[in-house]
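EI: anyone free to look at a 258-residue chain?
SC: sure, send it
EI:
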Amino acid sequence: MDFLTLTGIHHTYFTKTSAVTALNDISLDVREGEFVSFLGPSGCGKTTLLSIIAGLIDPSDGQVKLEGKTVKQASNQTGYMLQQDYLFPWKTIEENILLGLKISGTLNAQKKEEVLALLEQMGLENVGKLYPKQLSGGMRQRVALVRTLATEPKLLMLDEPFSALDYLTKLKLENLVSNTLKTFEKTAILVTHDIGEAIAMSDRIFLLSPRPGRLHQVFLIPEELRNISPFEVRNHPLYNELFQSIWKELEYLEPEEY
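SC: here you go
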């Protein structure tokens, strides 16, 4: 049984005067421990699809199953990391990262110790008593990752988490996030506009067509790239070859945009 399965996902947004179909007949599966990316032109429904997987939106048709359960039944097994960190500015870093455990009633001394240790592993020792405004953007995103991992989700969803960061910080975080998720054997889905980021971090890339979003093509990242860090991937000879292949498909899908 696949870890995550999407079958016949279709979604239409309705207003008083119009109906816009965002997704049409998307079926795919994700294996446990796999890192996959949703890539495609703007408006192809990537974030809508991620929101459906997270259970934030009910699809107009089709179903999502996580380990055989509906996403509503498995809602406590998913974690979401967004472009903005959404840390509470009036709470300390320690209070922010422990918030999910506190809300779920699972916070205890051992869990607190584990989460604070993870904060240190992220290179954020001695920041627990600080407030978000005292940290850089890259540090805040690392805090957001710790907060997401604290509740031990089985599925982690990343919605363009690095897009607001400068390029150097972005590259460092790609490595850090990738290594962390491999260490914790997490399954992850990344939504991105960045071809290079998708190649560097993923095991597979799902390329979506323009609205209404359909599954256009699946790219399997070669094993040589999956076994090295994202930074090393960008310097590997296979990287440029794969980049050009995906770029050509995007040009085919929406030539005026690329």
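EI: The chain has a mean pLDDT of 89.
SC: 👍
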